[in-house]
C-alpha cells in the first residue's frame, strides 16, 4: 500500500530537474524517479523469486498498443519539424507502460491503496493552494486572472490541477467511503481555489450522468443521494455568492456562456487541425501550440493511424460507463467511471494526458477501473470496501 501512496503523493511535488533535449526541455518529475526506483527493486526481487505480473488478455493488448504507440512517437522525429524535441513526449507513453504494470502489482484485486493514495494527493494539492494563495493574498487584486496566477502548486497551474480535483470530488461524493464528507469539502475548496471554469462544467456534466445511472441502479440509496446532492448544491451556492473567488468564477462562467469566449482555444484548435492536415502521419508529441483537446492533439501528434489508437487507450472506460450493465455496478465502480468521465470531458478543453505525471496517475486509475470491472463480472465478494 505504501508504494502506491508514495507514487501518487509524489506527483504533487512536481519537477526535480529539467533536461534539455533538442529545442525543448524535459521536466523530470519526482514521481518518475520514484516509480523507476520502486519498479526496478520489484523486478529484481521478482526475478529471484519467480513472481510474474498477472494481466488479462485485454490488458496485454493495452500494453502492446502502448509500446507500439510509444515507438511510433519516437520514429516521428524522422520527418517532424520538431526533430528530437518529440522524444520527451514519446517517453511519457513508455512511462505509462511501466506505471500500468506496477499498478497491477500494487492494486491486485483491491483499490484500497489507490483510494488512500488519492486522498494523500488531494490533501497535498489543496494544502499547497491554500499556502500559496495565502502568502500572495496582499498582491491579488481579486480579479479572475489575478486569482488564477496565484493558484499554482509544485505540480502545475490551476487549470491542470483542477482536472485531478474534479475527479477526487466525484469519487469521494459517489463512493461515500469512510470520512467522505471531509474529503468532499477539501476537494470543493481546492476546485474553487483553482478558479477553474472547466472543472465546474466537467463536474456538472458528470453529475448529470451519475443522476441518470442512479435512477436505474437498485444498489444506490436514492434518498441519501438526493440529500448529498442538495448538500453539495448548498455549499456551491454559498461559495458562488459569498466568496471573492466564487463570485469571480461565476462571473466568468456567465461571461463565457453569453459571449462564447473560449480564451483563445478556438485559434489553437484551428492551428492544430491545419497542422494535422499538412502532416497526417503526425508531428510528434510536443507542447508547442497545444490545442487543449485530447482528441485533436492525439491526431496532430500521432497521426491518422496511431492517433485514434492512443485515443482509444485513454477513453475506453467510456464503454463501461455507457454500457447498460453500469446500472448494476457498485458505488465504487460507478465513482471511478463517472470521475474518469469528468477527466475526459475536462481534457477536451485543457492540457492533459501528455506529460509523465498525468500519465502515471491516469494509468493507475485505469488499472483501478479494470480491477473493479473485473470484480463486478465475477461478483465473488462485495466490492464496496470500507477502510
Automatic annotation (TrEMBL):
Keyword line: Ligase, Membrane, Transmembrane, Transmembrane helix
Membrane topology per record: Multi-pass membrane protein
InterPro entries in the cross-refs: O-antigen_ligase-rel_domated
Single GO MF annotation: ligase activity
Protein name as annotated: O-antigen ligase family protein
Cellular localization per UniProt: Membrane
Transmembrane regions: 28-45, 57-80, 86-107, 119-137, 149-171, 178-194, 200-217, 229-250, 302-322, 334-353, 359-375
Residue ranges of domain O-antigen ligase-related in the record: 183-288
The keyword Membrane is annotated on this UniProt entry: yes
GO cellular component: membrane
Organism annotation: Neobacillus rhizophilus
Amino acid at each position: 500500500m505504501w508504494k502506491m501512496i508514495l507514487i501518487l503523493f509524489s506527483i504533487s511535488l512536481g519537477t526535480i530537474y529539467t533536461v534539455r533535449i533538442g529545442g525543448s526541455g524535459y521536466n523530470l518529475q519526482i514521481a518518475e524517479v520514484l516509480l523507476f526506483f520502486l519498479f526496478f527493486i520489484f523486478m529484481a526481487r521478482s526475478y529471484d523469486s519467480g513472481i510474474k505480473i498477472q494481466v488479462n488478455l485485454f490488458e496485454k493488448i493495452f500494453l502492446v498498443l502502448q509500446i507500439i504507440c510509444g515507438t511510433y512517437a519516437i520514429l516521428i522525429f524522422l520527418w517532424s519539424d520538431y526533430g528530437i524535441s518529440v522524444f520527451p513526449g514519446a517517453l511519457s507513453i513508455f512511462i505509462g507502460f511501466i506505471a500500468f504494470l506496477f499498478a497491477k502489482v500494487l492494486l491486485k484485486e483491491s483499490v484500497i491503496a489507490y483510494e488512500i493514495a488519492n486522498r494523500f494527493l488531494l490533501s497535498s494539492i489543496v494544502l499547497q493552494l491554500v499556502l500559496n494563495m495565502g502568502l500572495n493574498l496582499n498582491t491579488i487584486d481579486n480579479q479572475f486572472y489575478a486569482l488564477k496566477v496565484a493558484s499554482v502548486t509544485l505540480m502545475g497551474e490551476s487549470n491542470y490541477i483542477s482536472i485531478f480535483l474534479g475527479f477526487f470530488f466525484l469519487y469521494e461524493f459517489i463512493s461515500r467511503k469512510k470520512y467522505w464528507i471531509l474529503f468532499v469539502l477539501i476537494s470543493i475548496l481546492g476546485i474553487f481555489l483553482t478558479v477553474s471554469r472547466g472543472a465546474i462544467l466537467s463536474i456538472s456534466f458528470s453529475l448529470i450522468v451519475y443522476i441518470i445511472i442512479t435512477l436505474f441502479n437498485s444498489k444506490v440509496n436514492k434518498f441519501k443521494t438526493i440529500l448529498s446532492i442538495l448538500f453539495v448544491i448548498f455549499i456551491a451556492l454559498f461559495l458562488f455568492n459569498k466568496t471573492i473567488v466564487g463570485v469571480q468564477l461565476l462571473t466568468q462562467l456567465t461571461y463565457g456562456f453569453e459571449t462564447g469566449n473560449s480564451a483563445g482555444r478556438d485559434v489553437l484548435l484551428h492551428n492544430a487541425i491545419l497542422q494535422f492536415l499538412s502532416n497526417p502521419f503526425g508531428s510528434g508529441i510536443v507542447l508547442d501550440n497545444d490545442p487543449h483537446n485530447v482528441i485533436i492533439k492525439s491526431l496532430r501528434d500521432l497521426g491518422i493511424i496511431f492517433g485514434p489508437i492512443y485515443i482509444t487507450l485513454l477513453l475506453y472506460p467510456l464503454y463501461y460507463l455507457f454500457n447498460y450493465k453500469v446500472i448494476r455496478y457498485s458505488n465504487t465502480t460507478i465513482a471511478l467511471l463517472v470521475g474518469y468521465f469528468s477527466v475526459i470531458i475536462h481534457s477536451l478543453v485543457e492540457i492533459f494526458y501528455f506529460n509523465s505525471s498525468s500519465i502515471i496517475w491516469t494509468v493507475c486509475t485505469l488499472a483501478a477501473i479494470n480491477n473493479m470491472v473485473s470484480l463486478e463480472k465475477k461478483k465473488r465478494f462485495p466490492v464496496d470496501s470500507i477502510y
